[in-house]
Amino acid sequence: MQIEIPEGFKEYALQLLGEVDYERFIRALAEPPSVSARLNPLKVGNIISSRTECKDYDSVVPWTKHGFYFKERPSFTSDPLFHAGAYYVQEASSMFLECAIQEYVTDPVVALDLCAAPGGKSTHTRSLLPEGSLLVCNEPIKARAQILAENITKWGHTDVIVTNSYPNEFTGLTGFFDMIITDVPCSGEGMFRKEEDAVTSWSMDNVQMCAVRQREILTDIWPTLKPGGLLIYSTCTLNQYEDEENVRWIAEELGAEVLPLSIKEDWAIKGNLLSGNSFPVYHFLQGYTRGEGFFLAVLRKRKDSVQTDEKEISVCSKVKNKKKKDKQPNIEIPEFCKRWIKCPDSYDFQVQDEGVVVIPKSYKPHLEMLRKTVNVIQAGVMLAVLKGKDWMPVHPLAMSVMLNTDAFVKVELSYKEAVAYLRKEALNLAPEVPKGFILVCFYGLPLGFVKNIGNRANNLYPQEWRIRSSHLSDFCLKA
After folding, report:
1. Which tens digit of pLDDT belongs to each residue from 142-196?
2. Residue 247, number of CB atoms within 10 A of its CB
3. What are phi and psi of 324, to 5 degrees?
4. pLDDT given at position 469
5. Is residue 37, in this structure, part of any structural domain at all?
6. Which residues pair with 351 in a beta bridge?
7. How far apart are CA 285 and CA 300, in angstroms?
8. Per the structure, how many domains does the chain have?
9. Is residue 430 part of a domain?
10. pLDDT per position as a tens digit, 387-433
């Protein structure tokens, strides 16, 4: 694979890296990219056999507990466990986020993943945060926010809220977050090997435009971080303008301390590439680390750092408060629905659009504040919808770890049956399976619901999620 590197990039990359590192970097760009994934500890933890038995498994990602590489890219679409949320396909370098969270987050926090779609860092962060934490995942672009919500649903954790707002819309939430992850839009130099558009659209003007936009985003979101809170800043680019220079700007202009991370020498992570700069930052460079280009820095907000004017914030909040509340239908929630989840006393049951949503009581005050300020598109878990006179369990319940699996008859599907279910085809269950709502599973993990009517089972898998490929693969993470 030959990549036509832009001349302008060659000039400054050679100067930044030096001849030896640059040549090694360029040679690596001609090699195929690695393929990696991360297990969902909420659903499979370390018990999944992929690490020791799966023929497609290669080796572990050394800077994360649940990450691993594949020998080559399999057909994930054909693996039911992928759709069940057993694992997430994620670039290995970006899993380095784990080192920052493990080192500096020890108590429950309210965290924000600001530019979260499609959900790799959000699902990873939610797996790492201490119990009792709340994660807000935000994506400004509406279509991408829907993809984010789908991936969050599959991951299954209840203490997550998905929002669809621009950074400046969070301004009214002064000091709301203990930690903010800003994987900011960038020039994408670290993705040259994987994304042709990153190469063809590259220019120094675009680099400078990205650097300015990143500072605007950080300025908008900075007031929402508590004094003493953590900012994790990352890009998938290489240049100093979007990386080291922006970190220095955050520290000097916004008011922050750059924090070190404990890393191992054999990970071959590069440090600060600018001479005369001693603050710790971390570069993943193709040719040295197995993965794509990635940059990360961790900063702690000083108590005397820059704050947005309080008067402006209060006015903004009052404007948001004027939004009219949606009228909810007067529908009584049956008691049997409450038995569909674990620990029902920990949740509020709410009727929304003739459906039942359960909201963890622990974060209701946070949710109310968010709804006054930003566009919340998903909170809690949709439990059931009313179809005629029947309450029907819905797919988000099947994906959630709050699901009480003992409340339903369970049927284990074969691989072919599981793929047929994901295509939203009707299933024929064994004669002894009773009529009613059935939870279908694959390797013990819920895939979703069907309604067994005797001669067939109506498929309740979401229409918009169904897979369209007729391909059957010999790949399965537990094969």
Report:
1. 999 999 999 999 999 999 999 999 999 999 999 999 999 999 999 999 999 999 9
2. 25
3. -75, 140
4. 77
5. no
6. 356
7. 25
8. 1
9. yes
10. 888 899 999 999 999 999 999 999 999 999 999 999 999 999 999 99
pLDDT above 50: residue 314: no
Question: E strands, 316-468, where?
Answer: 347-352, 355-360, 376-379, 381-387, 390-393, 409-412, 436-442, 445-452, 457-459
State which amino acid sits at residue 3.
I
Residue 331 has pLDDT above 50, yes or no: yes
Domain that holds residue 416: 408-465
Looking up tokens 């659903």 gives 43
Query: 397, 393, 398, 365: which is closest to 380 by C-alpha?
Result: 397
Return the C-alpha torsion angle 468, 469, 472, 474, nearest 10. Answer: -110
Picking from 217, 65, 224, the residue whose alpha carbon sits closest to that of residue 136 is 224
The CATH number assigned to the domain holding 452 equals 2.30.130.60
Rounded Cα distance, 286 and 150, in Å = 31
Q: Which two tokens stand for residue 51?
A: 């690490």
